[in-house]
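ok trying again, last paste got cut off:
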Amino acid sequence: MIEEKDGALYAAFKSKDPRFDGRFFVGVSSTGIYCRPICRARLPRAENCTYYATAAEAEQAGFRPCLQCRPELAPGLAPVDAMASLAHKAARLIEENCGNDESLTELAGKLGCTDRHLRRTFTAEYHVTPVQYLQTCRLLFAKSVLTDTGLSVLEVALASGFGSLRRFNDLFKKRYRLTPTALRKEASVAKKRDEGSITLALGYRPPYRWEQILAFLGLRSIPGVETVKENAYFRTVHLVTGERKHLYGWIRVSDQPQKSALSVTVSATLLPVLPQVLSRVRRLFDLYCEPDAVQEALLCMNDIKPGLFLPGIRVPGCFDAFEMSVRAVLGQQITVKAATTLAGRFAEKFGAAIDTGIEGLAHAFPSPEVILTLEAPVENHLGPLGIIAARAKTILALAERFSKEAIGCGFCIQPEDEITKLMELPGIGPWTAQYIAMRAFEWTDAFPDTDLGVKKALAPLGRKGILALAEHWRPWRAYATLCLWNSRESQGG
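nice, full thing came through this time. structure:
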């Protein structure tokens, strides 16, 4: 429980300011529910409010989620906080893998620590155990799917990681004091079942510059794998379940600014890996960002040039780290358009064909294992596509590392260490490593200072001057890089 000091938390709750959304939750003793700070329901008395760092902690205290503000839609914590705490990284992994039966030992192994240390650290940070946090993640995920889709209760139970319908019903009723079926009635939803797909919402903290991130992704979209049209982002998906079953499908992402949320449509073929899909969408569209913290650090950029920093800027992440890394290698010393053409040829040649029924989506990006099956030398296979021998060898080296999970993309605790590993590979220098760190590691402080767009935007400063200036932008230099690229309409990356 978070201690209230001088009425600050109640004042934040009363203000309904979206900047506080996801930073804490409010338990209301008079109703037995807990809310987001932006909840528009009638404001309770201050003496009836208690405050919690996470939804899991609020639920362990006996509160059930508000049906109006829907705590499951609250944005998560920013990656910069995660770097300062092992517990935050663990929470992200639990959220992504809540549909799996991953043990605490396996989770700790991914984070490079013992399960005992992880349990102690996690409990100290969140005041609940990892298992309790996992239960809340599963229940809130199920609540979201029940509210927003027409999936059957059994399908929701399985997608949420519950081994049986009975177990799901029992825990749901115990925690939320109503059955899954009753939730749908109480929430007044009557979703039409679409056999081909389902649509869910993912919240973010406004402002959110949707047009800019969509333009960035559209310029770099890999033909056949991604496309941007109708003010939405589409892509194919290939994921592997814990049972090593390969699943293929597609997603569509659009903005709902009036709800401060992204609308995510997922093909029904991806239901068994739905939590992973949604987690990757959050990473791709930088939904963990705290724009007020970024603005506080980077508003000084407007002293260099008025309008250089624009509130709501986001750093585009990636859906697949290997795909992102290959795309970065192909983009070395050539234009964005040329790199996109090469990536499209690469995907068409080695990726699995998918019948999506959506124009522009025809195949999945090849996995590292597919590249490793190619008969040596690898340049004989990639050369005819227009990929020079040096970059073909770099792509092969990346495939080897990713297949062994030797590079900790996505949830690495020490990004600098992973950058060092990348630069040990042939053909990867500082620019490529920093660019991959920015988009695949979610490192908010990544800074490709040798980038041509960065140098032009900050001319006539030399490298030393650029690095000295960028010190004022820590730990948000990745966001500063996007501002510099946008200022020149640069094609950086």
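cool. The first strand starts at residue 25 and ends at 28. Residues 308 and 487 are 6 Å apart (CA to CA).
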